[in-house]
Amino acid sequence: MTNPSDSYPMRLQRFLARAGVSSRRGSERLMTEGRVRVNGTVVTELGSKIDPLRDEVSVDGKVCTLADRHCYLLLNKPAGYLTTMSDPYGRPTVADLVPVDEYPGLYPVGRLDADTTGCLLFTTDGRVGQNLLHPSHNVDKTYIACISGSLSETEISALEHGVEMDGCTAAPARVEVIEAGDRRLVPVRPDGLREREQVVSLTVHEGRKHQVKRMFFAVGHLVKSLHRARFGPLEAGSIPEGSWRLCTDAEIDALFSAAGLERGG
At a CB cut-off of 8 Å and minimum separation 6, what does 15 contact? Predict the structure, then answer.
């Protein structure tokens, strides 16, 4: 039985990945090798779509299904892990940290850079994950950044009103200085000088690549370290770095609300 929330057209390779058959790329290889059938017919065209409730998908003759109930879990991501479920070069990935065998089809909602730590949601629910990332839902993400130097009032205003970066304008952000720049010093630079740094909370709702780092760079500051403290209604809180926990019912309800969906509908 497939969860009703999956009753919408889905790319075949995505379905196979959600069903735990293989990674997205691995599923594409299975298709091009002619090993995937939909309703008894071999399908090799990448991008083909199926209805999870009505179409029967099989690989090498074995019928594939999605889990009866979706999984939603929160990882406190450590530094040094790629936000992907597989890496052709064998580098550490977040898949090494979450129970992919217990919850086939688990995938991360959005990305964190390898050197960024903190709150990373995983789910098997493609519709919720897709909606949470869609710009129309304006899901807030709060980061704690340690930056070089100290933000001026002018720079804070630029971030709060929408800073120009790389030919585009970022949406307005919320900025809170957590620790003043004159209270921390980074190690001595090669030229023998020390550079002050500042700890800042930045809340954004966009999800562009390297967004937070680019925003601070646009106002003249480098990000020394970056931690995502909150994703929508979720906080890493007391989860030890590198560990995960299942979301509570209240958190799942809040995720559906943030995604503009009704739970169970």
Answer: 50, 52, 57, 64, 66
Place of tokens 């869609």: 134
> Judging by beta carbons within 10 Å of its beta carbon (0-12, 13-18, 19+), is residue 193 exposed, middle or buried?
exposed
Q: Report DSSP state, residue 82.
A: B
Domains of the chain: 4-64 (3.10.290.10), 72-135+233-258 (3.30.70.580), 140-231 (3.30.70.1560)
67 contact partners, CB below 8 Å, separation of at least 6: 3, 103, 104, 105, 124
How far apart are alpha carbons 216 and 121 in whole angstroms? 25
Work out the pLDDT band at 253, boundaries 50, 70, 90: very high
pLDDT interval class at 5 (50, 70, 90): very low
The Cα 19–Cα 106 span in angstroms is 9
- Bridge-partner residues for 108, per DSSP? 122
Write down the catalytic residue from 113, 115, 125, 249. 113
Question: For the purposes of burial, counting CB atoms within 10 Å of the CB of 206, is it exposed (0-12), middle (13-18) or buried (19 or more)?
Answer: middle
Tokens (6 digits) for 128: 């919720």
Q: Is 113 a catalytic residue?
A: yes
Residue 216 is classified by DSSP as H
pLDDT band at 4 (very low <50, low <70, confident <90, very high): very low
Q: Does residue 21 contact residue 29 with C-beta atoms inside 8 Å?
A: no
**Quick check: pTM over 0.90?**
no
